[in-house]
């Protein structure tokens, strides 16, 4: 019975609970009791050292077990953001996004592993070890929200939340074969979400299907007096119901699909199938142009590190987190930050401070901000002719553990297709589109490929509706990753 | 690490090829100007809870080593 409960989507389980066929405790227990074979969690709800987190007894998500990326503060639970510098830190307040889920009745299953301060695309930058891809445990789950994606894929949670700065929800969702939505910038409050790059960071859901993503969005998207950039989704989020794509104009930007840097043949093939499918389903499909999108990675790796270098100045060993004692104040700062931060975080702080230094500001930061404008304009122009744009989510399927760890630039390219939407602040979803052989010639299992569907700002309802229709037509089966047949 | 940073900067410098004359910089993507709220006094985090996570609290303060040891 409990194994059966793990196969249900959130909406299906809520229906069974409503009909009296499943108890919320049994549902929660079926996840909480499973062995975490992919190392998705840093903390689980059965930890006797933590006080239980209270949630509302009733509400639209009553009893829904949710996994929370360790970047979100929850009062009384540890929050490390994958960093040694926050080892042992227990925040005194709860992130608004989590507060809203708890207020609607959701229950926290655990805190999930992640790349340190959300900087990475493989989860290998966590100070607390690797997360394994449930489809092939010799491979990465993607990142930075690798733990959240792997938890949902492996049947360790029916849903999870994560954050996306340049692809950190969509890319791991694609690599793990689950649904991941990066909402419009400003849709969900960032209060209590540990900051990486504040003009880009956004919270979003991981789920097994599109309908569940809509359920979580309806709970989390709202204005918040604690985050002046949070405006919610003015027209709300409707539950998806679309069966086809008739009447929709869908654009295919070559720059982020067939011409994307490093795209694997297997990914291209699945994507081309998706383009044909969209046409069969009644959409008017045509080529779109995003002439500056190819410069997204370059602009992003100036802007995001620049913002990070300012945001991470707060980890100084004074108010919370780790301190490495030393004789004087400067030596204490240096010892604490040298010891507390991992290599990728140090790399980005150095890149960011360099890009912001007076002699180089115009050449790097100033230019990157102007490229950002160009990329946003490209999207605005495209949306004059198209309702939605589709691309592969990531140029490759899940790569091997260690394969890109020594080459930061190769790692950054994992976000080639997702970074432009982040720079423009627009929403995009990744849904499983099928399986493909990895481009590295391995003879292992076929691996998930994600389809990215992007729309203009605050078009979440339309994106979810179209994604729901495509999802039904694709009929992706993720049971293998949950450790068995359905 | 120096080599890695040079590699990344080399890639980033491809944006110097673009003609960006007259393009305004984007600082944020939202159509928001001066988000204001009523100026009401509200309770903030209590002092003992704010100090609870400090590596070296001292009374009502955070203690740090001397700037000139």
Describe, in plain words, how this protein is organized in 3D:
The complex is a heterodimer of chains A (486) and B (69). The relative contact order of chain A is 0.15. Chain A is built from 15 helices and 13 strands. Chain A is 34% helix and 14% strand. Chain A is globular, with a radius of gyration of 21 Å. Chain A is an alpha/beta fold. In chain A, the strands form two sheets. In chain A, strands 1-3-2-4-6-5-12-13-11-9-10 form an eleven-stranded mixed beta sheet, with helices on both faces. In chain A, strands 7-8 form a two-stranded antiparallel sheet. Chain A starts with a helix and ends in a 12-residue tail after the last helix. Chain B contains two helices and two strands. In chain B, strand 1 and strand 2 (61-62) form a beta hairpin. Chain B has helices at residues 2-12, 47-51; strands spanning 57-58, 61-62. Chain B has a two-stranded antiparallel sheet. Helix content of chain B is 23%, strand content 6%. With 69 residues, chain B is mostly helical. At the A-B interface, strand 8, helix 9, helix 10, helix 11 and helix 12 of A face helix 1 of B.
Enter the CATH topology name of the largest domain in chain A: Amidase signature (AS) enzymes
Identify the biggest protein-protein contact and residues per side.
Answer: A-B, 59 and 40 residues
Mean pLDDT over all positions of chain A? 96
Strand coverage percent of chain A: 5-15%
CATH top level class name of the largest domain in chain A: Alpha Beta
Order of helices and strands of chain A: HHHEEHEHEHEEHEEEHEHHHHEHHEEH
Across the major sheet of chain A, the strand order is 1-3-2-4-6-5-12-13-11-9-10
Rg from Cα of chain B: 24 Å
Mean pLDDT of chain B: 91
Shape of chain B: flat
Largest sheet of chain A, if any?
11 strands, mixed
The oligomerization state is: heterodimer
Number of helices of chain B: 2
């Amino acid at each position: 019975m409990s194994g059966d409960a793990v196969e249900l989507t959130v909406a299906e389980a809520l229906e069974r609970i409503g009909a009296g066929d499943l108890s919320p405790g049994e549902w929660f227990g079926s996840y909480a009791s499973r062995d975490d074979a992919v190392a998705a969690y840093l903390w689980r709800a059965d930890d006797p050292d933590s006080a239980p987190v209270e949630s509302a007894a009733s509400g639209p998500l009553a009893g829904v077990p949710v996994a929370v990326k360790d970047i979100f503060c929850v009062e009384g639970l540890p929050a490390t953001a994958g960093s040694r510098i926050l080892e042992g830190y227990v925040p005194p307040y709860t992130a608004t996004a989590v507060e809203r889920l708890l207020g609607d009745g959701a229950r926290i299953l655990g805190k999930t592993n992640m790349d340190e301060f959300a900087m990475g695309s493989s989860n290998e930058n966590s100070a607390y070890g690797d997360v394994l891809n449930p489809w092939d445990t010799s491979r990465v789950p993607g990142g930075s929200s690798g733990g959240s994606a792997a938890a949902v894929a492996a049947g360790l949670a029916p849903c999870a939340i994560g954050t996306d700065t340049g692809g950190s929800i969509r890319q791991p969702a694609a690599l793990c074969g689950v649904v991941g939505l990066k909402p419009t910038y400003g849709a969900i409050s960032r209060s209590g979400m540990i900051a990486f790059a504040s003009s880009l960071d956004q919270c979003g859901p991981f789920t097994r299907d599109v309908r569940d993503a809509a359920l979580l969005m309806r709970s989390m998207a709202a204005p918040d007096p604690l985050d002046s950039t949070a405006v919610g989704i003015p027209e709300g989020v409707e539950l998806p119901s679309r069966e086809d794509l008739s009447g929709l104009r869908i654009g295919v930007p070559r720059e982020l699909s067939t011409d994307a840097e490093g795209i694997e043949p297997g990914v291209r093939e699945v994507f081309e199938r998706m383009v044909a499918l969209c046409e069969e389903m009644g959409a008017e499909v045509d080529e779109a142009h995003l002439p500056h999108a190819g410069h997204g990675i370059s602009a992003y790796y100036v802007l995001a590190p620049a913002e990070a270098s300012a945001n991470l100045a707060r980890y100084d060993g004074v108010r919370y987190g780790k301190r490495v004692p030393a004789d004087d104040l400067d030596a204490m700062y240096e010892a604490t930050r040298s010891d507390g931060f991992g290599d990728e975080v140090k790399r980005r702080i150095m890149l960011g401070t360099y890009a912001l230094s007076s002699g180089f500001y115009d050449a790097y930061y100033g230019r990157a901000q102007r490229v950002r404008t160009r990329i946003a304009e490209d999207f605005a122009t495209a949306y004059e002719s198209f309702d939605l744009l589709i691309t592969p989510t990531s140029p490759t399927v899940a790569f091997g553990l260690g394969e890109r760890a020594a080459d930061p630039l190769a790692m950054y390219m994992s976000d080639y297709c997702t970074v432009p939407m982040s720079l423009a602040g627009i929403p995009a979803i990744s849904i499983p589109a099928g399986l493909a052989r990895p481009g590295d010639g391995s003879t292992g299992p076929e691996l998930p490929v994600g389809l990215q569907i992007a729309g203009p700002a605050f078009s979440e309802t339309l994106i979810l509706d179209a994604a729901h229709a495509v999802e039904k037509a694709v009929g992706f089966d993720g049971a293998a990753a949950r450790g068995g047949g359905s | 690490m120096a080599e890695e940073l040079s590699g990344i900067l080399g890639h980033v410098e491809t944006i110097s090829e673009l003609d960006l004359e007259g393009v305004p910089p984007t600082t944020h993507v939202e159509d928001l100007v001066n988000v204001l709220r009523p100026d009401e006094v509200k309770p903030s985090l209590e002092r003992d809870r704010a100090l609870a996570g400090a590596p070296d609290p001292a009374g009502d303060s955070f203690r740090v080593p001397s700037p000139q040891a």
